[in-house]
Amino acid sequence: KLADDPSLPQGATEEDGRQRWFSLAEINELRRRIRFRGKTLLPKRPGGRAMRVAVSNFKGGVGKTVVAQHLANAAALDGYRVLVVDFDPQATLTHSMGLVEVKEWNTVWGIMCRDLCREADRIAAAYDDPADCPYPTADELPEDVQSIGAQRVQDFIQKTAWPTIDIIPSCANAAFVEFASAQYRHLNPEWSFFAAVSRYLDALPRDAYDMVIFDCPPAIGYQSMNAVFAADMLYVPSGPGYWEYDSTTSFIGQLSEALADLSGFEGVVPAGTLQLPKVFQDVRFLLTRYEPGNELHRAMRSAFQKVWEDRVTENAIEMTRAVEQSGRFLS
């Protein structure tokens, strides 16, 4: 087919002529233009909007960022268009995607400010006389919030080295979002802060992405609640030790209580494609740094399976030499 159509990407052939190399962009061009036995080579797209996957656990060091990054890479290699959202102020996922100079107003924090401005005006407009609204309107909010809130939807999305992976990045300065969110929610208690990211994603073109992946911080807070509420699917990575097991079970209990606390907003949250009470399409538990020959690890895997049954993924991320040394070699 390449010989018949020179306009197709031809790749780069090695000197011995035995191998031909293509970039991912070239492969995706071939997928779009070539049919095999009358069938397209493009992957099957999800119906409607993009699938949203949150990778979350408030236990640190269990591999959340690794799982989120590899899910994004694997989906991109399969031909899907991916948006990753870095909720973690440590910004490891952002750095791994090649971004280092990020301003806090271009992070999830900016999305929440933008949402607060729009929600403030919506809430005020619900009163017969907006002047009767006890909460500030958008033009009465702090000037920094107003300036961030004026940004366009696309201003938060940045390109990565991967042609089909975009990112909403994070940075260390975004760590204050938890304190600022609490302050602004005090100004307007009716602000459904947990739906800010969901509303933002609903404003994107429905065919812009096939998958949205959230890398969550190791905490249950304003940012992680936004990720969990916006997600269709929840992945919970955990190490195979007792304390990781104990922490993960505690995380699920506290997350359940936190989601239940949002029930007071039921019927009044303009959450677009998501509604209260919150229901996931699926929840999966993934063991990381797992050693098949370790008796304790096998026992803990059995304990996970007794509690969560088939929600424990069939395959664990095994502790290989490559995984063990990956941090040292930045690979």
What's this entry about, in short?
By secondary structure, the protein is an alpha/beta fold.
Explain this structure.
The model has no long low-confidence stretch (mean pLDDT 90). The protein has 331 residues and is an alpha/beta fold. The longest helix is centred in the last third of the chain and has 20 residues.
SSE run: EEHEEEHEHHHEEHHEHEHEHH
Shape: globular
Largest sheet, spatial ordering of strands? 7-8-6-9-5-10-11
Largest sheet at a glance?
7 strands, mixed
Radius of gyration: 22 Å
Low-confidence stretches: none
Could you tell me how far the N terminus lies from the C terminus, measured between alpha carbons in angstroms?
36 Å
* Helical residues, percent: 25-40%
List the helices and strands and how they pair.
Blueprint: E1 12-13, E2 20-21, H1 24-33, E3 35-36, E4 39-40, E5 51-55, H2 64-77, E6 82-86, H3 92-96, H4 108-125, H5 143-149, E7 158-159, E8 165-168, H6 177-187, H7 196-202, E9 211-215, H8 222-230, E10 233-238, H9 242-261, E11 282-287, H10 295-308, H11 321-329
Parallel strand pairs: 5-9, 5-10, 6-8, 6-9, 10-11
Antiparallel strand pairs: 1-2, 3-4, 7-8
Fill in the keyword field for this structure.
331 residues; two-stranded antiparallel sheet; alpha/beta
